[in-house]
Design brief:
AAA+ family ATPase, two-stranded antiparallel ribbon, flat, 2 strands
Length: 120
């Protein structure tokens, strides 16, 4: 029991300043952290205001896009069951966007072989 009690007593003795009354105010570490975060916020404020302005400008465009393209995208997502069977979309020189289906050989190359032993 004394082997356990001695470290606990030493730890509580060392931690006693943590439990002391906070009449002295914030510690130097707390003051430093507060100053750091205040400085960080001051540095980020212009970028955040710019981002907010961009979001306000883009909102009508995004709403229009969703209204026009939403039904078509919903229909397309309903038809495609497994997106891993398709290549990434690509834009043709005339502006058309196509999504090519992978060949069976391409799909087989990417599928991991099963049935073998796995070394851990």
């Amino acid at each position: 029991m004394t082997r356990f009690a001695t470290p606990v007593i030493v730890a509580l003795t060392m931690a006693s300043p943590v439990f002391a009354d906070d009449k002295e105010g914030p510690s130097l570490m707390e003051q430093g952290a507060k100053m750091f975060f205040q400085g960080l916020m001051e540095e980020m404020e212009p970028a955040l205001k710019e981002l907010e302005g961009m979001a306000e400008e883009m909102e009508p465009m995004l709403k229009d896009f969703a209204a026009e393209m939403g039904p078509a995208l919903k229909e397309m997502f309903g038809k495609v069951e497994d997106w891993s069977l398709y290549h990434s979309p690509e834009m043709l020189p005339n502006g058309d966007i196509i999504i090519r289906r992978r060949t069976e050989e391409e799909v087989a190359e990417e599928q991991p072989e099963t049935g073998g032993e796995i070394d851990l």
